[in-house]
Amino acid sequence: MTAMTTALPASLADITVFDPDTYANGDPTTFGLPLQQFDYLREHAPCYLQTFDDPLLVEQTWVVTRWEDINAIDRDPETWAANRGGVNIWKVTPLAPKHIADEIGFGKPAMLVMDGEDHRRNRRVVSRTFTPTMVRGLEERFRRYATSVVDDALAQDGPFNFIEVVAHAMPMEALGDVLGIPKEDRPKFFHWVDQFASPYDPRVTKSFDQLLQAIMELLAYAPELAELRRTNPTDDVITKMVQAVDSESMSEDEIQGNVALLASGAAESTRTTLGHGMHELMRDGEQMAWLRERADDIPSTVVQEMVRIASPFTHLSRTATQDVELHGQQIREGDKVAMLFAAGNFDPEVFDEPRRFDLSRENNPHLSFGRGPHSCLGKHIAALEIKILLEELLQRTSEIKPAGPISYSRDNYSRGVYELPVTVTAA
Amino acid sequence: MKVIVDLDVCQAHGDCVVAAPEVFDLGEEDDVVTVLHPEPGDELRARVERAALDCPVTAIRIED
């Protein structure tokens, strides 16, 4: 493990915000994030050009780190398109706009890589399922899953990996239901998601071929699932998408892309938040005590603060549709721009004491869900899931303690936690 | 204060419902938001301003 540097960056040459090892070796006292590098960038190089020498990554991208700029870019799809490819800095993802997928022979279209009318058409098919009102109807079911997950945690004999037993397990059931994945298919489904969620972590993905395989298998499974829901409709998102295909407001390709998108968006991000959230709670006795006092009805500020510091995806990318000057930099039409959400989430212009983990934080316009038309479809579900899980967990335990150091995933996009050893004591 | 929503732009993200449930509603059958109180009392100003800021498609306008 390389020594963590605490030296302030002196220049752009010291910047490693897209190096998977920066996150693998993250400082557990700064949320695993290179906060000093973010501070430097926001202040000295709020729009800089990052180049890569990695066949898995794009050649270069502009990088934007101030909250104000990220917020503006995210909300301006006409200038900063999502439908010109490049979800993030990776070259290979399961999602690609149709014209690019046709060109490179890989990937399926999904909401996140669409704009305008196509985007609205796709989202409309499923947005009703994800509104706060509809989501509230899932509370009972989520509570059942949370109860069963906490049962498992309490049944552990000694230290266990919180990520595996709790953080991973909860979204698997919750999302499995929402998407309509048959119970027997859930383990393999989430195994695929794990693989392409952490392509740089050799503990998870052994090779690039394994990564591609996982993507192909997931994409191939989607039509199987669609067919199942065509003949056995249930009250879930896949059924809605199948019905949309039948009424011609969604294509078969789009179902595949959207399944991959919803799968990774939901599985990965929720467990990331739970992992980081639990780690920070255990580090901060005051916050833990404060939260335990409210364990019968956890305030919404709690989830949002956990999502802010977790910053489950470090960035998302857009493509400039015209020449733009930003902070003295000449961005050309066709250039990629990475919105570094993780950096914007600690912007002192917007957040009071940004480095403080404050579960009662009221003013919290964090960027983790995105703040434009592509704003996370699942954010209300994720919030409910996390709230209920934490309620059950805290009500039924008197203590949750670390049993070893946190181990962060080795990645430059997903902020997964690989291992969080804990012990719990029943209440 | 008056709350005005551009329904052509609304995409049912639901952030306004979370920020100000007294003023905004998104029913089960709805594709766009319903403004329950187009002229809410001043005690709801902070919440309505939060809703306007949070709306991902900038569909909410406040007029004084």
Secondary structure class of chain A reads: alpha+beta
**Strand arrangement in the largest pleated sheet of chain B:** 1-4
**Cα distance, first to last residue of chain A?**
37 Å
H/I helix tally of chain A: 16
Determine and state the CATH class of chain A.
Answer: Mainly Alpha
The end-to-end span of chain B amounts to 4 Å
Structural class designation of chain B: alpha+beta
Question: What do these coordinates show?
Answer:
The complex is a heterodimer of chains A (427) and B (64). With 427 residues, chain A is α+β, with helices and mostly antiparallel strands. Chain A has one domain: Cytochrome P450 (Cytochrome p450). Chain A has helices at residues 20-24, 35-44, 67-74, 98-104, 116-127, 132-136, 139-155, 162-179, 186-197, 208-231, 237-246, 252-283, 285-293, 300-310, 341-344, 379-396, and strands at residues 47-51, 60-64, 80-81, 160-161, 316-320, 324-326, 329-331, 336-339, 397-402, 407-408, 417-419, 421-426. A five-stranded mixed beta sheet of chain A has the order 1-2-8-5-3, with helices on one face. Chain A starts with 19 loop residues before the first helix and ends with a strand. The mean pLDDT of chain A is 92. Chain B is an alpha+beta fold and 64 residues long. Chain B has a single domain (2-63), classed as Alpha-Beta Plaits. Chain B has two helices and four strands, in the order βαββαβ. In chain B, the strands form two sheets. In chain B, strands 1-4 form a two-stranded antiparallel ribbon. In chain B, strands 2-3 form a two-stranded antiparallel ribbon. In chain B, a hairpin with an 8-residue loop joins strand 2 and strand 3. The longest helix of chain B has 10 residues, at 45-54. Chain B is globular and about 30 Å long. The N and C termini of chain B lie close together (4 Å). Classes of the chains: A alpha+beta (427), B alpha+beta (64). Chains A and B meet through helix 5 and helix 6 of A and helix 1 of B.
